[in-house]
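Q: Two folds, back to back.
A: First:
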Amino acid sequence: MATYIDGMEGGKHNSDDCEVSHTPIIKDKVNRSNIAEHLIKYQLAMVGKTMEEALLDDMWFFNWKITQEKYDEFKKYAILLIKKVFKCNKKRAEKTFAWFDLEFGLSILDKSNKM
C-alpha cells in the first residue's frame, strides 16, 4: 500500500498532528522502496536544495545545514511517515528515523555559528 504525500501538512495526516508552516510540497507515491529517497528530497527542499545539487556535491551532508526548528519539523514528519508506510509503532519509527538521520541527515545549524 502506498502513501501519497502532498499539501502543506506533510501528507494525509491532519494539521493537528503536524503543525507545519513552510513545509515543501512534494507529491510522491511513497512506499517501502522509495521512502529514503523521498525523505532526502523532502529534507533538502526544506533548506532550498535539490537532489541534483546533492549529486554534484560529494560533501552535501557536511556543507549544508538545517536549523533546529526545521530539523524538529522534519523529524516529526518523517516519523509519522515511517509509521504509516511500515505500519509500525512510534518507538520503532523513531529508531528507524535515527538510522536514517545518521546516514543521510543534515547537520543542525549551531545558533552561535552561522551557515
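A: Second:
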Amino acid sequence: MSPLQYQKQLRLQAAQQRMVIDGLDAASAAFSVGYESARQFNREYGRFFGLPPIKHLRTVRASSSLRSLSQLIIETQSEASFRNKKARANDL
C-alpha cells in the first residue's frame, strides 16, 4: 500500500467514526477530514466500504442496537481492509 492509499484509508475511517459516533452527515464528515469534494468522498467511501455513506450508515445504525458502536466500526474497517487486499491480489 502506498503512503497516499494509507492516508486515504485513515481519512475514510476517521470520517466513518465522525458520522457514526458524532452524528455528522457525510458532507460534513468529508470536509472535516480534508476532502474538498463531497462527491469524491462519496465515491471513495463506496469503493472502500462497499456501500455509499448513506446506505452504510443505515446498516451500521441498524446493527448498533445489537453491538457496541466501537466494535461495529472495528469490524467494518476490518472487512473493508480485507476486500481491498483481495482486490489488490486479484489485480496482480
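Q: And?
A: Residues 6 and 57 are 22 Å apart (CA to CA).
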